[in-house]
Amino acid sequence: MKTAIALFIGLLCTTAVADNEFNLLRSDASGFTQVSPGLELSFPADHLPHPDYRIEWWYLTANLTDEDGQHWGIHWTLFRQSLRPEPDPGGWQSTQAWMAHAALSTPENHVYDERFARGGISQAGVELTAEGRFDAWLDDWQWLGTGTEPLPGTLVFTVSETRVELDLSSQTPWVLQGDNGYSQKAPSGQASAYYSQPHIDIAGQIQHNGNTFQVTGSGWLDREWSSQPLAPSQPGWDWFSLHLSSGDALMVYQLRDTQAPNTLNGIWVTPDGRFSSLSGDQITLSSKGETDVSTRAGTRKMPLRWSIEVPAHKVDIEVSAPRADHWLDTLFPYWEGPVSVTGSHQGKGYMELTGY
Amino acid sequence: MLRFTHLSKGYAQPDGFLPVLNDVSGEVARGESVALLGESGSGKSTLLHLVAGLDVPDHGTMLLNDISLTDASAQTWNRLRREHISLVFQDFHLIPTLNVDDNLKLQARLAGQLDLDFCNQLIERLGLTGLLHGLPGELSGGQQQRVAIARSLAHRPTLVLADEPTGNLDEQTAQDVMTLLIDCVRAANSSLLMVTHSPAMAAYLDRRWHLKAGELHED
Amino acid sequence: MKTERLTRIVWVNRVLLSHYRRHPLQAIFLLLGLTLGVALWSAVELINGHARTSYADAEQFLGADAHFWIRPTGENAAVSQQDYIRLRRLGFVELYPIIEARLQTREQDWLILLATDFMALPIADAQNNSSETATPFVGDALAFMTPPFQTAVPESLASELGINPGDQLTLTNGQRLPPATLQSRPQQGERLVVDMAAAFEVLNRDNFDYLGVTKLSASREQALRQALPEGLILTRNQQSLDLQELTDSLHIQLAAMGWLAFVVGLFIVFNAVRFSLWMRQATLTTLREMGIGLDDLALAIALEALFWSVLGTLLGGGLGFLLGNLLLPTVSSSLGSLYGAIITPTVTLTARHLLQAAIMTLLGVTVAVAGPIWLSARRSIRQQQHQTLDQQFQPRQLGVQSLSAVALLGLAALYYFQIDSVSDGFVLLALVLFGSALSLPPLLYGAFWLAARSMPASWWRLRWAMRDAFAQLPHLRIAMMALLLALVANLGVSTLVGSFRIAFTDWLTVRMSADVYVQSATLDADALLTQAPLKVQASHARTGLNLRWQDRPTEIRGVNTQAPDMRSLPLALSEPNALSQWAEQGHLRPILANEQVHHLAGVNLGESVSLPTDTGTVDFQVVGFFHDYGNPYYAFYLPKATVSQYWKNAQPMGLAIWLQDTNLQAFEPDLLDAGAEPGDWIDQRQLMSVALQIFERTFAITGALNTLTLGVAGVALFAALMSIHQQRLHQYAHWRALGVNQQEWLLIVGGPLAGMVMVTGLLAIPLGAVLSALLIADINIIAFGWSMPLNWSWHPVANLAILTTLTLILTGLTALWRVQRQLPNALIRLGGTA
């Protein structure tokens, strides 16, 4: 379904000049609460929205396999935005706006969809239901927890007539990124509150082209909110979430900077959920070449092969995307797709490249 | 040069057939000027019309520089009238909406044979220099006829056919025009066949023919 | 060889065109005729084409596809938020909410307000999702959704109502609309647009009027129908098709006017081209003498024709564009009021239009030019040399014209019995018009011949004048025909409009006899009537619903048969005692229908109609047809009880109240007490004036086109006169030399002209009557189904007489002035060569 995309841009971009969509993320946080160090996250409260902060998301990626060994990639995100730094009156005059992306990497192709909704009218939101269950939805895309937490829970969504129903659960605790959840993005101080769940067990089914596939695999949930996650000199980021054959999970991300050195961060999570942050000097991340990716605006060259070294954990791997066609020509366009890991470790993961 | 042999032409009338030309023959050499005299109704205009292609003879042949004029197609006649045969009329037949300069150059342009030098010569000879930007309507009869003469000769045609060219002019003007006409015809090295009822005018030309009762005699 | 010919042709053209340098007036008139004709035709074409494209737009709502609507039924008047959200959460993301409210401002202007959720509105044409796509709104879209919100006002509406950016319109209920911003979305027309949040606040409500639905596959449609709760119904959006069908007649009428204007313009062109060729006859002959063949001449003339056509088309197209834009708002508002059509306010000129106009003018000019060329072709050079410039009286031509006239009129008479569509009707009109036009020259000749013969010999001046008519007539006959056409069309249409106006006003007075009309969702009608029994003389509460019958939108109304406006319902055709029969509701189920049902659907008195009800189709017997002017739809009246018996979904359709003393002010508090909101009612005076306004606007276009066509004819006359005088100048000089003075000259030259115009005018009157009879009794009925009596008024005749006389005087004086100026020269040249 086509949506009022340009309108959403107009809405979201409070800056007059909107020649790059990601300006939103760079713009001044005036009026909104800033993420500051000394953050203390508590659950399940922090699973719910933080309207004082401008931008927030609930971000799931997963690599699944069906009974025949075919690979399915899942990417489902719910974005929230506060339009103005005022208390939310709710209803149709709500200050909140929602956007959701769902992308499916099927054995044959890549399908995705983008939706928008205003907050306050029950069309979208993240709340606790009357029975106290975690509920994150936009139209008929819904993540419903069995309790107040998202996990265990079920995620249901449709993309291009393919219906995905997944049961999600995890045995390990929430991972706090950065410094206890305070994740600095740039030397000048832009930061976000950031936590993840890298070990999500998934089982479910996908109805695609008249067939039903039973799928299982691992997923990764990122939760983040901020009022200014990017500095003005930062065009975008490269983000990797990897499930290694050893059972560990590795996340690496790099915020590219035109004026200062790139901000590089990561986290290492053991199979039983112990995590340790990785600073920039513990990681070596380099791009290994570019590939042509076709987008609506033409062909772009994107770096779809990277090498990552984390000596502290004896990681020397090459991460590459088996398929290049995962560009999302959405309101904020970006590349997001499954990757394979080779080298010192095998594995699978997801890669996100923004700001190209 | 023009040669016609055994030309006959008659018209059907309510009370029978009226013969006008009866087996006439003649020749006009290149550069020659011939006057065609005769009384009203003697057929002189008819002969002129036949040579101009404005009418078709009943019998006989006509040749212009070895081009057969009898049985010539309309297309051939058009080309002949453009390039080889020009006409000068008693009432000038100038284009009223063109100025003198354009008028006198028109025939040459239509024939695709504009020679500016020769045109200027003619303009000088005919004394038209000061009149070039006027319209025919503003000129006197004599002046108009001079323009007509210039037009007829600008492309140096083989033959000029003139039908009573001084008929509308007073005596003095007529004499001036005749002098100029002969002068220019010679300059263009064209032949001239002129119909006139005035022996005085005829005297200006090299030869004189008489048409009487449908027959042609030379003087 | 080729270039030689090309150069030759170029020179021939230069010679031919030099004529216009010396006679610029001819060029002006030629161009004028072309330009005016093309302008009027293309203005109408542009308006029609534009309107028709806009109907296709009815498939969309503010840029989003609207293939279906979800509307409330039964007790509900609105779609609740809960239902909407529920459907969306079921996955029906093709839905979006709509409010469409009719509001009245403090300044008494009625406006329509649209609202939707712009975050849910699926823009159909957002093909490229790049951020470079123009925003649906120019400017800050956030302002629409953020208090104090914004109102999108189309520029044309803003300038009409004097709204500046930032202005806040105040409504009669005291609420203020958000600040205005001048911009317009697709299909917005003359309506205001706000965000749903703003609408809820201003209108103090929290539900929607209906939902829009984009494309649905068959299975999706099925799923949606099943998912719909009680009280909501999914209907297809038929508006586009309906609009096309309903407005067809109107557009054909406009097109007919445009064609008429074009034809009259062509008359001018015809005249001018013929005349200019005639004036150049000597030149043409001289060219032939100089060896230019007929093929070259024909080619050159054809090129000249092409030149004029192209020039005329460009000028006419440009003028038509301006004219179309000028006339469009009026047409748009008529279409909007009558049919609910939304037309965007500006017209665009396309290459296709220009091409069409070019081809038509080229054809017209070629036809004008073909005659003389063909005639020339038949003549040898010698014959042409002896051709005089004076146009001869050609009895054979007259004979041909008379025969053609008779043939056309005869054909018209036969065709009359065959017509059953609007196009047929206009073909008939064309036959009548052209038959009459062709009969004019013979009539004129006959008139003058008779006049000349019957005058005594001593009136030699007059007899000279009459005979001079014969010299003038060949030049003037075409202008006279153009004049006749324009006069007849004018009279016919004026009579139509006049008759319509009378019928409409009379009908309106009877139908709208109540003092106040109330439409309120919150009014407690019973309370009102019991509270103020002394003030209320009578009341009429109607119910009804809309459905489709014979594939057209149809209104079913449940009425109170004893109400004052029902007892005196103006019936067009009825059985005796129809009104009492119908009130009694015998076992035959009698029904009243509007006369459109009779004329357009072909139902006769006493026949039965099958209407779709809740329980299946039910037959009703038609006992009467009532007049229903201005209604494009079918309508059926039944007693209220019957309607609620067969249709559960019938809604209240307003309350009409007759007051004891027509003091609405005194009554208003009672209305408020009973629950009505300010702005829920309208008094009779206002209602009548709005209705009449719509009427006048609709016919304003016809009036404008008519007047313009008359203007074109006037120009034709003027041009023809100028050309005659031009050509006869040397004759006038002769006359002057003979001693004819100014008064005598005026008599001889002006007399026949006045006579011709008089004869033409007199002929126009009965023909105008015939035309209006055809329009009223046949075409109007076929087109709209509205019947009315023909009301002949001498007013338009008087007006036209004055107009034509003025034109005559104007041209006469101008002619006199020109002749005076040119006579001295002509006199000089009379003397012959200088």
TrEMBL record, chain A:
Signal sequence range: 1-18
Keyword Signal: yes
Protein name: AttH domain-containing protein
Gene3D superfamilies per the UniProt record, alphabetical: AttH-like domain (2.40.370.10)
InterPro entries the UniProt entry points to: AttH-like_dom_sf (IPR023374), AttH_dom (IPR010791)
Domain of life: Bacteria
Keyword entries, A-Z: Signal
Occurrences of domain AttH (ranges): 55-227
Signal among keywords: yes
UniProtKB/TrEMBL annotation, chain B:
CDD domains, alphabetized: ABC_MJ0796_LolCDE_FtsE
PROSITE patterns membership: ABC_TRANSPORTER_1 (PS00211), ABC_TRANSPORTER_2 (PS50893)
Coiled coil: none
Pfam family, one: ABC_tran
Keyword list, A-Z: ATP-binding, Nucleotide-binding, Transport
Entry GO MF terms: ATP binding; ATP hydrolysis activity
Recorded family membership: Belongs to the ABC transporter superfamily.
Protein name, per record: Putative ABC transporter, ATP-binding protein
Species the sequence originates in: Reinekea blandensis MED297
Automatic annotation (TrEMBL), chain C:
Localization per record: Cell membrane
Residue stretches spanning the membrane: 24-44, 256-277, 297-323, 354-377, 398-419, 425-452, 473-493, 699-724, 745-777, 797-819
InterPro entries cross-referenced by the UniProt entry: ABC3_permease_C, Membrane_comp_ABC_pdt
Pfam families reported for this sequence: FtsX
Signal peptide residues on this chain, from the entry's feature table: none
Residue ranges occupied by any ABC3 transporter permease C-terminal domain in the UniProt entry: 257-380, 706-821
Cell membrane in keyword set: yes
Topology in membrane: Multi-pass membrane protein
Subcellular location, principal: membrane
Keywords: Cell membrane, Membrane, Transmembrane, Transmembrane helix
GO cellular component, one term: plasma membrane
Name assigned to this protein: Predicted permease
